[in-house]
TrEMBL record:
Record's protein name: Mechanosensitive ion channel inner membrane domain-containing protein
Transmembrane stretches, start-end: 26-47, 74-92, 98-124, 144-163
UniProtKB keywords: Cell membrane, Membrane, Transmembrane, Transmembrane helix
Family of the protein in this entry: Belongs to the MscS (TC 1.A.23) family.
Membrane protein topology class: Multi-pass membrane protein
GO cellular component labels: plasma membrane
Main subcellular location: membrane
Database matches in InterPro entries: LSM_dom_sf, MS_channel_C, MscS_archaea/bacteria_type, MscS_beta-dom_sf, MscS_channel_2nd, MscS_channel_C_sf
UniProt GO molecular function: mechanosensitive monoatomic ion channel activity
Cross-referenced SUPFAM superfamilies: Mechanosensitive channel protein MscS (YggB), C-terminal domain (SSF82689), Sm-like ribonucleoproteins (SSF50182)
Cellular localization per UniProt: Cell membrane
Length: 348
């Protein structure tokens, strides 16, 4: 027969006290918070050390970037799960529990939405570099994927946030469809701009930093391509915001398009009948070659075009590097031609 000593009684009491203490909702809630924090820290450490080391062994950098982006949402997801369980264990009033759980879910959804969008854009940028212009994902189409990604990811995020607050999304979607039709009719210009923005980004008649001219007279560098509008910066450092629907219905001259950005200028010159045409040709060639603003290759050329009513019509053709410098260079060349022709006694 086994006989327990009375000395063991206090230990039994302490154990019973400890068990009863653990059963307290507040203590359990605190333990869950501590446990979730420990698990979150452990998961974060594993991702940032173990997985990062494995990613560093690959030749690609995209996996490194995605790991850097996703480790934080995973950390907060584990932490919010522990906080949610803790709130339920405290047996607070239903409305308070509902609000806290809804807040935790909403914050987690927003964190994941931002992280997924960042990961998506990093992947798109990486893929555009890998494809080397052989797919639709290219440098000039990145704004399109940027805008489409934002719309899709944050619409899905909004859907799940509504669900987390117990909102009947089906009924809302039906109502939203009707409202969207009314809004589309009332804001047809805005809708037209949005569709035009998608087509501009897909068709890419221009890209960022291109120098464009519109038939309305606007011209400048493209600084932003959005869903609703495009912004260009003029030579006077004035930013012009143009609705995409206006641009879509305009003739666009992209002076930065083509294999090179260089632009050829043509300057007509009329000299009096009886002038030495060889001397005129030589002077025009010399003037254009002496200018630092004129490209050496292709070389400047002079053409005798026609016999005018009051003079012989020549044309000086040369290339410049930047289309936006056209006005300044034409002024420079014309001024030099006028001075040299006076010095050489050639009547204009």
């Amino acid at each position: 027969m086994l006989v327990f000593s009375p000395n063991f009684a206090p230990m039994t009491d302490y154990l019973e006290l400890f068990i009863n203490l653990i059963k307290q909702p507040l203590i359990q809630a605190v333990l869950y918070i501590i446990g979730s924090l420990v698990v979150a820290k452990l998961a974060d450490w594993i991702i940032r050390t173990v997985l990062s080391r494995l990613a560093n062994q690959t030749s690609s950098t995209i996996d490194d970037r995605i790991i850097q982006i996703l480790h934080r949402p995973i950390y907060y997801s584990i932490l919010f799960m522990g906080l949610g369980i803790s709130i339920k264990l405290l047996q607070l009033p239903d409305i308070i529990t509902f609000v806290f759980i809804g807040l935790f879910k909403s914050i987690a959804i927003l964190i994941w939405s931002v992280a997924l969008f960042q990961a998506f854009m990093h992947f798109i940028n990486w893929y555009s570099q890998q494809s080397k212009g052989k797919s639709i994902v290219q440098t000039h189409t990145l704004p399109l994927f940027d805008n489409v990604g934002k719309v899709i990811i944050f619409m899905v995020a909004g859907y799940f946030i509504f669900i987390s607050w117990g909102v009947n999304v089906t009924g809302w979607l039906a109502s939203t469809t009707i409202v969207a039709m009314v809004v589309a009719l009332a804001a047809k210009d805005t809708v037209a701009n949005l569709f035009a923005g998608f087509f501009i980004m897909a068709d890419t008649p221009y890209k960022l930093d291109d120098y464009i001219n519109l038939d309305g007279g606007e011209r400048g560098y493209v600084k932003h391509i959005g869903l609703r509008s495009t912004r260009i910066m003029t030579r006077d450092d004035i930013e012009i915001t143009l609705p995409n629907s206006l641009i879509a219905n305009s003739k666009i001259i992209n002076e930065s398009g083509g294999p090179k950005e260089n632009e050829r200028l043509r300057i007509p010159i009329s000299v009096a009948y009886g002038s030495d045409i060889d001397k005129v040709r030589s002077l025009l060639t010399e003037i254009s070659k002496a200018s630092e603003s004129v490209c050496e290759n292709p070389a400047p050329r002079v053409r005798f075009r026609s016999f005018g009513d009051s003079g012989l019509i020549f044309q000086l053709l040369f290339w410049i590097e930047k289309p936006e410098d056209r006005g300044r260079i034409v002024d420079e060349i014309n001024s030099t031609i006028y001075k040299r022709f006076i010095d050489e006694n050639i009547e204009i």
